[in-house]
Automatic annotation (TrEMBL):
Origin superkingdom: Bacteria
Keyword Metal-binding: yes
UniProt cross-references to NCBIfam families, sorted A to Z: PRK00418.1
Species this protein is from: Oceanisphaera sediminis
Positions of Zn(2+) binding: 9, 12, 28, 32
Cofactor annotation remark: Binds 1 zinc ion.
Keywords noted in UniProt: Metal-binding, Zinc
Subunit structure: Interacts with GyrB.
InterPro entries in the record: DNA_gyrase_inhibitor_YacG, Znf_NHR/GATA
PANTHER family named in the record: DNA GYRASE INHIBITOR YACG
Family (UniProt): Belongs to the DNA gyrase inhibitor YacG family.
The protein's name in its UniProt record: DNA gyrase inhibitor YacG
Length: 63
């Protein structure tokens, strides 16, 4: 018996089957995938913590 795993699309919350038939998983579509990417690029989403590199530290990062 094969159990079908489903997950909610992170963007629109539509149910997505986790498998080869869903090439954009965990997203339901390319559109939702691109919306999510845009949110990361615009820094609307971010991982909490100190940044590994700051632009004003350029001189400190050179060897």
């Amino acid at each position: 018996m094969n159990k079908i795993t489903t997950v909610p699309c992170p963007t629109c919350k539509k149910t997505v089957e986790w498998g080869e038939q869903s090439p954009f998983r965990p997203f339901c579509s390319k559109r939702c995938q691109l919306i999510d990417l845009g949110e990361w690029a615009d820094e609307e989403k971010r991982i909490p913590g100190d940044p590994a590199w700051l632009p004003d530290q350029d001189d400190e990062n050179e060897v």
